[in-house]
Design goal:
This protein is an alpha/beta fold. The protein has nine helices and 14 strands. The structure holds flavin mononucleotide (FMN).
């Protein structure tokens, strides 16, 4: 079976992409994972200036998942372009830059720096991070604001623009607004705002009061969002939330996703995304389709 998928003008060798914030800048995993085996890699969120991120502890385990409040720690877009991208672009996988800003102008600044660099396949605008005080999820919560940032980034960019939605907004309204503003694809979705407290002390288990929930616990919730959004827009959807196996990936494709991302699974198995590619190949050999895209929206 042919595993290649098309997201707008972009052709991926297979539909499995490593999710932002769970796979570093990609190259840190090169000694463990065959990066060429992946359909794509979305790098850690990049901001105009380096960000220190949130106070420790930044991660805590929950039943069937994980909370994080990393706060978008990153080296800044310029250091990414000069220090990480030259090594990363040697691989035959689609490199996607995840873009973050505190304001519309800052999103555009990051895109402008990336426009000057070779080797990127697309941008993923993160308008849904729950772990920063200003920017991020603020833009993703309101259709009009989301459309404003997407329209501005569209003007600044010649590359495909994916927009990563928040799961806790009116997701269909935001999806339609960003499609109209020029998004080429939607990434559905980011983590769910959530908290965990120490019952004895009453203290948050994170350095911030709340964080974002990810992992298997969110899979049924986000699967439904993918289904809903895929019926609300015409552009391709990239689904993610709790994917650990090829079967999980197939559920997302059947719900309406064109491609999928693997995130939290990398924390227990750094080779998770490579393994999901192998699982998918295996799973699809038992089916009579010619291309994996034929699975899309196949629900009985
Ligand atoms: C530690 C951590 C850091 C993350 N950092 C980012 C980020 O920088 N940008 C972004 O768009 N999403 C970020 N995410 C969200 C993931 O890319 C993904 O949307 C979410 O975790 C749900 O997928 P999963 O259940 O497979 O992890 C992060 C998630 C985790 C767990």
């Amino acid at each position: 079976m042919d595993l290649s998928v098309r997201i707008g003008t972009l052709l991926l060798s297979n539909p499995v992409i490593a999710a932002s914030g769970t796979f570093g800048y990609g190259i840190e995993f090169a000694h463990l994972v065959d990066l060429n085996s992946l359909g794509g890699i979305v790098v850690k969120g990049l901001s105009a200036k380096p960000m220190e991120g949130a106070p420790a502890p930044r991660l805590c385990e929950t039943s069937g998942g994980m909370l994080n409040a990393v706060g978008l720690q990153n080296i800044g877009v310029r250091a990414f372009v000069s220090e990480k991208l030259p090594e990363l672009r040697k691989y035959r996988t689609a490199i996607v830059a995840n873009v973050f800003g505190h304001s519309v102008a800052e999103y555009c600044d990051v895109v402008q720096v990336l426009e000057g660099a070779d080797g990127l396949a697309a941008y993923e605008l993160n308008i849904s991070c729950p772990n920063v005080d200003c920017g991020g999820a603020e833009f993703g919560a309101e259709p009009a604001l989301a459309a404003e940032v997407v329209a501005a980034a569209r003007k600044a960019s010649r590359r495909p623009l994916w927009v990563k939605l928040a799961p806790n907004a009116d997701v269909r309204a935001v999806a339609r607004a960003v499609e109209a503003a020029g998004a080429d694809a939607l990434t559905v979705a980011n983590t769910y705002p959530a908290m965990s407290l120490d019952a004895r002390t009453g203290r948050s288990r994170l350095g911030r009061l709340s964080g974002g929930l990810s992992g298997p616990a969110i899979k049924p919730l986000t699967l439904r969002l993918v289904y809903e959004v895929s019926r609300a827009v015409r552009i391709p959807i990239i689904g993610l939330g709790g994917i650990q196996t090829g079967e999980d990936a197939v559920e997302y494709l059947r719900a309406g996703a064109t491609a999928i991302q693997v995130g939290t699974a990398h924390f227990s198995d750094p080779k998770a995304s490579e393994r999901v590619v192998g699982d998918l190949r295996h799973h699809c050999n038992d089916l009579t389709y010619h291309n994996i895209s034929e699975l899309r929206s196949h629900i009985e």
